[in-house]
Amino acid sequence: MKKKDQNSKSKSKKPKVSKNDKSKKFKKKPKYNNKANNKLKNNNKPKKVNNTVKKTNKLKESKLEYKKRLNGINRKNVSRILQACLKYGNADVRSSISQRFREGLNLNNLNSHSSKFLIKLFHYCNTEVKQFLRFAFFNEKQKNLIFSRFSSDVMDIIYSKLRPKDQISVLQLYTFSNSFYLNNDETRKAKEVNSINQLIQLISTSTSKSSCLEKMDSVITKLAEKELMISSLSHDLLFVYVSLIEDKTELVSQLYKIYGQLLSTRSGNNSILALIDYANAKIKKHIIKSMKRDFPEAVYNKINVNFLIKLVNVTDDTKVVFQHLVEPLLEDLNRLLHDTNSVKFVLNLLNTVDTTSPNTLKEDNVRKEELQKEFVPKLVEYFKESDLKSCILDKNCSQVLLHTLKISKDSNLLDLVLSIFSENLSEFLDNQLYQSMVKCKNKISEEFKEFKVNERLWEHVKSDVKRVLSSKSVFLLIDLVESFQIRNQTDLISDFKNTVTIDIINEAKSALTGINCILKCV
C-alpha cells in the first residue's frame, strides 16, 4: 500500500512555478528519430526532382586521379594493348588508333604509359601522324612540356628523328627572345640557319644577344633543377648556351652533380668539356671519384674518352687521378691496349700536351711525369710477359709499345722487340713500329739514337736486300739510309751503297715507284 501511495503522490505533483508565477504547459512533441517514423514523414511530403549533378565524386577524387582520367592512354592496360596493336596491326588499324587519339589528346598530363604509347605511335605511323606529333609538342604554346619528365621523353625521340634544319627551328623556340623577332633583318637571317654553329654565330652577333641569353639561362636552370638534362634537345640547348657565355664558373657549380647526364650525346660531352676548365679542385675531385663508380666503361666509349682525357689534363692532383682513373684500368691491360678508344687515353698519359686552363697550376709535363712514374713500369712488365709479336702486329698496341720504349729506355724490352724483327723478317719489314723508330722525320726516333736502332735493323735487312727492294718494304730502306746521312754515319752509308748497288736497283726498278727514291739517296 505504501508503494501505491508513493506512486500516486508522484503522479499528482503540480507543475513548477516560475519566478513570474506563471505556469508552463509542456506539450510533448512527436519524435521522428527512429527510422520508421522518418519514412512515414518523408512519404507524406511530395518528392522534389533534383536535376543538379552530384559533386561528391569529384570531391572524393584526388587531383592526380582526375588528371589520369583525362587520358585513357594513361592507364597501363590500355596503353600496352594499343602499343601491341600499333606494332602488329596493319595500316588501317594504325590509322584508326591515331585518328582516335588525335582528336582528344591532352599532352599536359602524360605519364610513363601514355609517353610509351606516343613513342610507339610516332615510330609505327605514317608521315602525317609524325608531323602532327611534331607540331603538337613543338610550338609556342607547349614550350613548357620540355620541363615534364614524360613529355621530354617523347620530345627527345621526335627531335632525334628530325632533319638538321627542323632541329634548328625547334632550338629557336628556346633560344630566341621576343625582342629578337622584332628585328626583321635578324628574323630573315634565322630562316637561313642550317646548323648549330650557324645558330650560335647568329645569336653572338645579334643586338638581342643579352635577352636571348637570359631566356636560355632560365631554361637551362629549370632543366638542371628538375634533373632533366637527359635528352638530346636539352644537350643541344646547353651547347648553344655554353658557346655564348664567357664566365662559365656559375654554370659549372649548377651542373657538376648531374654531369653524367651529359655524357650520352656529343653536344652534351662537348658542353662538359668546355665547362671542366672552370671547375675548381673540389668539383674535379668529385667528378673523378664518381667516374670510377658510375662510368667504369667510359674509357672504351668514343665520345666519353675525350672527357676523361680532358679531366686528366686539367687536374693537378695526380694522386687522385691515378687512384681513381688509371689504376682500375690496370686490371685488364690486354683490353685497354688493344681497344681503339682506350688507346687514346693511354697515349695521352704517355705524351705531354699544351693545355691552358684557368684553374690549373701545374705544367703538363710535370703532371704527366708524376703519372708516368706509376704507369710506365706496369706497361713494361705487361709487354715482357705478354705475346709481344701479337702486340707489335696490332696497330693500337704497337703505338703504346713505341711510347713505352721511348719513356722507359728499357734495353731488355728493346732487345726483345728487335729479336722478333730478325726472327720474322718477312712479316715486319713494313711494320709501322720499326719504321717509326728509324724515320728521321719523326721526333720519337731521336729517343732511340743511343740504342743504335737503325744500325741494328740494317744488320738484319741487308742480308735480304733483293727481296726487300721488290716489296713494299722498300720504304724501310729509304728511312734507314736517310738516318745514316742525317747522323753522318759514313761507315754505314758506304756499307749501304756497296750492298744496294745500281744493278740490283735496276732489276727491281720496274716493280715499285719507291726505287726512284733510293736512286736519289745512293
From TrEMBL:
Q: Which GO terms describe its cellular component?
A: nucleolus
Its name, as the record gives it, is PUM-HD domain-containing protein
- List, in alphabetical order, the Gene Ontology terms for molecular function in this entry: mRNA binding
Q: Which domain of life is it from?
A: Eukaryota
InterPro entries tied to this protein: ARM-like, ARM-type_fold, PUM3
**Please, one GO biological process term?**
regulation of translation
Q: What is the lineage of its organism?
A: Eukaryota, Sar, Alveolata, Apicomplexa, Aconoidasida
Region Disordered, as annotated, extends over 1-59
